[in-house]
Amino acid sequence: MKKLFTMFALVIILGAQTLLAQALFTENFEYTVGEPLTSNTWNITGTSTTNLISVVDSNLTYTGYNLSTGKAAFLTTTGQDVNKAYSSVVNSGNLYVSFLVRVSAAQTVGDYFFHLGISPTNSSIFIGRLFCKLASNGNLSFGLSKSSTNTTVPAVYSDSTYSIGTTYLMVLKYSFNPGTDDDTVKLFINPTLSANEPASTLTHSTLTTGADPVELATVNLRQGTTANAPTLVIDGIKVSTSWLEVIPVEFTSFSATGFENSVRLSWSTSTETNNNGFNVERKSTSGNWENIAFVKGNGTTTSKSNYSYTDQNLNGVKFSYRLKQVDFDGSFSYSKVVEIDLNKVFTYTLNQNYPNPFNPSTTINFSLAKAGNVKLTVYNLLGQEVKSLMNGVMEAGNHTVPFDASNLNSGVYLYKIESGSFVQVRKMTLMK
Question: Are the C-beta atoms of residues 266 and 305 closer than 8 Å to each other?
């Protein structure tokens, strides 16, 4: 798994099976914009050649999920369906598929847009179908069925609390159970990205026809009828057999500090599993991403690790940086992007946290005009300290600090920065 950088304490002992688990499939759609997926290793399902599923620029992001890299697959209605096999079939235990999705339009009847299948894909064996429909209040409901649906075995739907135009993290879980036709599927929507698997949003276990599949081997994207199907973009698909392997989690910190013609990058991890290391990638204002260095990781560890790299002798003033974390098995995921302008004169600033409102994690950005001791503290509305996020010396420049509020109740909180004579307070809202 791309065990990136989490604020969540991983207080568990990983069994041998978990340690050996690997991602079976990752898809970031890093192809040419406008090209169909069938030109880029995906296979056609059925025979339709209408409205090919193609690649678009669509920067989907979700705090803590670092698999999306800026491009996505665009699904509309009444068009070609596609599938892609993962590296090996799964016929026992659990199968997890995670991805990001943002819906731009939906219909009141609703239809499914994603499912699992065998290899080669057979239209009579579509398993773990994910639905979306437009509710009467104008919001979205997501649905789940184990196989197909009819009047006696309909899909189960979530509450209509999801919004058009918002990015959601979905995790589909299929469990091969030992009995006859007793396998189950579960759907997690915006799950907490921690070591412990949370409660699912939806569960479905009833077959409409046929029997439970002997094995599963493909992910499938579907464009349904004009009257029923949603329009959406999807990105950052990952398939594995362990909750820990499916969910990439966030950097504890990643920041860039500029001085003269150099940039110092600093980042930290709290846990790592099978982490070979980090490719440091840089992009100028008008250029493309390029790999400039490799920093060796610490393999598997539950201790905090700190890393840094200094990019020297730069020609130019504005740069973007990101980290590509690579596992020993070759799987990878990206950090967020940090930007820096070497001509900028830094001032003392405390920015609004993002996202806000949040659940349960957010990030706080601030800048320092000069190096010095920094205290960053979170308080409740009674003025009681609930969390100390930073208390130490930091360099001048822009900085990002993550905040995990898993142990706090919903409500409004204050965060305060103190550095020398600079003091500033802002509000943030935790909504669980």
Answer: no
- Residue length, the chain? 432
Task: Say how far apart CA 280 and CA 323 lie, in whole Å.
Answer: 5
Residues 233-287: pLDDT tens digits? 999 999 988 887 765 545 577 888 777 678 889 888 866 767 889 999 999 888 8
Its sign, for the CA torsion 158, 159, 161, 163, is positive
DSSP of 108-156: SS-EEEEEEE-SS--TT-EEEEEEEEE-TTS-EEEEEESS---SSSPPE
The reply to whether domains 23-243 and 253-341 share a CATH topology is: no
- Answer CATH for 23-243 from 3.20.110.20, 3.30.470.30, 3.30.1370.110, 2.60.120.200: 2.60.120.200
Contact between 421 and 375 under an 8 Å Cβ cutoff? The reply is no
Cα-to-chain-centroid distance, residue 287: 26
Domain boundaries, the chain: 23-243, 253-341, 349-430
Q: How far apart are CA 282 and CA 28, in angstroms?
A: 19
Question: What residue ranges in 135-249 does DSSP mark as E strands?
Answer: 140-145, 156-157, 167-176, 184-189, 202-204, 216-221, 231-240
Residue type, 61: T
- Rounded to whole angstroms, the Cα distance separating 387 from 370 reads 25
The dotted CATH code for 349-430 is 2.60.40.1930
| Range 253-341 classified under CATH 2.60.40.10 | yes
Mean pLDDT of the residues in the chain: 86
Does the predicted TM-score (pTM) go above 0.70? Answer: no
